Amino acid sequence: MRSSLRGIWLVVAMSVRVSPWQSLLCLAESLGSVISLLQPLYLAWFVDGVLHHDTARMAVAVTAFAASTGLSWGLGMAGCDARIRQFERVGFAFDTEIARITASIPTIDHLESGKYLDQLQALRDQQGALGMALNNVLNTFKNVVFAGGTMLLAAGADVRLLLLVVAGLPGVVATRWIIRWQARAEEVSAEPGRLATHLLDLSTTAGPGAEVRVFGLRDVVRHRLDRAVARWRAPTVDLARRTELVNAVCEAFFFGSAGAVLAWMVHDAIRGQVPVSALVLAVMLVGRLQSTANVLRWSIHNISRLTRTTGRFLWLRDYDREVRAAHRGAQPPPASLRHGITLEGLNYAYPETADPSLRDVSLHLPAGSVVALVGENGAGKSTLVKLLTGLYRPTAGRVLVDGVDLDDLDLPAWRTRVSGAFQDYARVEFTARESIGVGDLPRVDDEAEVSRALREGAGEDVLTALPSGLATQLGSSWPEGVELSGGQWQRLAIARGMMRTDPLLLVLDEPTAALDAATEHALFERYAAAARAAGGRGAVTLLVTHRFSTVAAADLVVVLDGGRVAEVGSHAELVAARGHYAELYELQARGYR
User: pLDDT tens across 86-142, in order?
Assistant: First the structure.
């Protein structure tokens, strides 16, 4: 009940926030419904007037019926129009809020959580329900008013009609089963829904589409897509079958009971024990009593659906608040680093994963140093980078910036002092100038700074592929857009990381994976020289690579193995130690001989 009330309050509050007057006008439809409730009574008056030759009663009945019909119709039209306009606005407001929350959560580990992604998929599948939530609340209010008024009229006509209310109760009780079935269907269909979306993307987007065609995977992907879609929609189809079966049984029971009650009343009317007007009113109310049972069932059903959908929205909002509560730090980052960055007992496990990716990592990155982070694939290098940049929050341990816990720093402010190029770089399909310049938004249109960053990122040769230079639109899907190779996109990502000239932490997470080893080595030499030239602010430059031949220029080499720090030292010290680093270095060196 509490969750239902919370969901209803959320929808009403959003509606009032979007447009208070429009929300108030929506209630006109419910008022029209109340007025129309008395129409069967007016018809009963008219019949009674005919039987008793009472023209005054007949005139009152006709006048009241006509007035109520017109007023009910007018209020219903006004309320319905307001309701449609309002639920479109409310739906847009919810969509906007979902997008805002999803995009602004300060960490990204939730994007690798199956639980989070399933909840988000279910929210997307039922996203229209948020827009219709106001509609459901208003309809429920109208239906409750309708049901209450109908039962009062039925009791006034003949108390035996209340037996039909009892006959409608099995359908209301059965709604509980249907609600459970529907909730289960939404949960079960979320994962195959995500899979179907993924397989569809494989078939319809350019990058994976090339491999699908070259390797002859179209039939395989299509068959898997068919199965995924079938699994996605099967729970909904099964839900529809079961729901219709339950509804049919309940309807049969109700109309059987209605036939028996009306036969009883007709028998009494023939014997003069029941007024004809009461019988007329009873006949007209049977349909309404049947509708009353249905509207109560659907009101419960809709409120339950609203509760589930708003519950997912509230879960998303609460998750956002939980993450923000964990990052309440307000202390500004230092202007420069004096001691460096220290990792104490750092552990991290991905969501829903038992084994941690990093285990008890304790490490000091001295201020002004160039640190190479090496290790085989899966050693935990990129995970460590995301912890340093605040994109992940440690499962245990802490990151200290000049002795201050990263949790105590203002996270957005810390990120303004971080820059870099990442392994999973973004293909920003703006103009080339903007694609690079967004690395430092205040100078996004500064062509001189963009050109500098491009030079420092060794990306000058990319300009030869751009017919309009830095003004060239990137991405072949846009008018006059130019498509770049993987290596060219990577050069622009590196240049983007060079836009900030005063970062305290510069991270280069395998930014040259698409380049050959010799080019990567030359670039890292350039990065190391630039980092030492800017050492006055104590910046730490972290070079992440799995190529051991490129790290000789680093002041410190950190070797990760299986999520742990295996060795720390200079290149020369680690080679001389003849440990894990030296072994891997020699294995790679043989490959280039």
Answer: 777 877 888 788 888 877 787 777 777 777 777 776 666 665 666 666 666 777 777
* Domains in the chain, CATH or no CATH each: 2-322 (1.20.1560.10), 340-591 (3.40.50.300)
* Helices within 105-205 (DSSP H only): 114-125, 127-131, 133-157, 162-204
Q: Which of 581, 562, 561, 584 is nearest to 570 (CA)?
A: 581
On whether the CB atoms of residues 382 and 544 are closer than 8 A, the answer is yes
Place of tokens 């319809």: 204
Model confidence pLDDT, tens digit, residues 278-319: 676 677 667 667 667 667 767 777 777 777 777 778 888 888
Q: Which two tokens stand for residue 131?
A: 């827009």
Please provide the size of the chain in residues. 593
Inter-CA distances, 144 with 83, 288, 513, Å: 17, 13, 64
Question: Taking Cα atoms as reference points, which of 15, 2, 310, 7 lies closest to residue 134?
Answer: 15
Q: Which amino acid is at 331?
A: Q
pTM of the model: 0.65
> In terms of Cα–Cα distance, which of 417, 439, 411, 414 is closest to 426?
439
Strand partners, 361: 346
Q: Report how far residue 18's alpha carbon sits from residue 181's, in angstroms, rounded to the nearest whole number.
A: 33
